[in-house]
Design a protein that fits this description.
This protein has 199 residues and is mainly alpha-helical. It has two domains: 8-59; 67-196, Invertase/pectin methylesterase inhibitor family protein (Butyryl-CoA Dehydrogenase, subunit A, domain 3). The protein contains nine helices and no strands. Helix 3 runs antiparallel to helix 4. Bound molecules: 2-acetamido-2-deoxy-beta-D-glucopyranose. InterPro entries: Invertase/methylesterase_inhib, Pectinesterase_inhib_dom, PME_Inhibitor.
Length: 199
């Protein structure tokens, strides 16, 4: 290399790093919150949906740090918000012209099931903040029960569309919407379990 006579070896190394790595800047950004991001990564790897999990929670790394309680609480809040927005989408879908009566009935049931899930997440979030009364073990067992119940509600919603005559656009839309809710609920249940097991 001709330039080598004008630069120190360290400078050359830096030059090579920066010219061969177009994403150097983003790599540096990740490195700066290394341990926080590492905690999210490890926690997400223990869930059924590690990629969705990491994509969802890595942006909260600075807030969560390595605190399993904050991670569990954040995951409940994410699941709640996703359920609320799913419920809104299903309500909008209900207004589509030309729905079959069975589709309309199944959508109506789904909206009710999402409303039950919303209650279960809200109860779970406030229970996590509570410190009086119940023991930690009983409290966490209650939260686990409610988050599991939300998963069941989501399954029940999808079951309403299982008949062959329901195959179509409405079912496909519901499936996409509910799948996201189900996956984030499953991640949240894993984080609640991780926190429950951390003490
Ligand atoms: C959920 O929605 C509420 C109200 O809009 C908001 O304050 C909160 O930050 C949201 N939580 C997450 C994790 O996005």
């Amino acid at each position: 290399m001709v330039i080598s006579s004008h630069f120190s070896p360290a400078a050359i190394l830096i030059l090579i790093l920066f010219t061969t790595h177009p994403n150097c800047l983003s790599a540096r950004k990740i490195l700066s919150s290394d341990t926080d991001t590492e905690f999210i990564k490890t926690s997400c790897d223990a869930t059924t949906y590690p990629d969705l999990c990491f994509a969802t929670f890595s942006s909260y790394a600075t807030q969560i740090q390595a605190n399993p309680k904050i991670l569990a609480a954040k995951s409940l809040s994410v699941a709640l918000n996703t359920t609320l927005s799913a419920s809104q989408s299903l309500t909008d879908l209900c207004k589509t012209q030309g729905l079959k009566p069975k589709e309309e009935a199944a959508l109506h049931d789904c909206v009710e099931e999402m409303s039950d899930s919303v209650d279960e997440f809200r109860r779970s979030i406030s229970e996590m903040e509570e410190s009086e009364g119940k023991s930690f073990a009983i409290r966490m067992s209650d939260v686990e029960t409610w988050v599991s119940a939300a998963l069941t509600d989501e399954d029940t919603c999808m079951d309403g569309f299982s008949e062959n005559e329901m195959d179509g656009d409405v079912k496909a839309t519901v499936k996409t919407t509910i799948e996201k809710v189900t996956q984030l609920t499953s991640v949240s249940l894993a984080f609640v379990n991780q926190y429950a097991g951390s003490k």
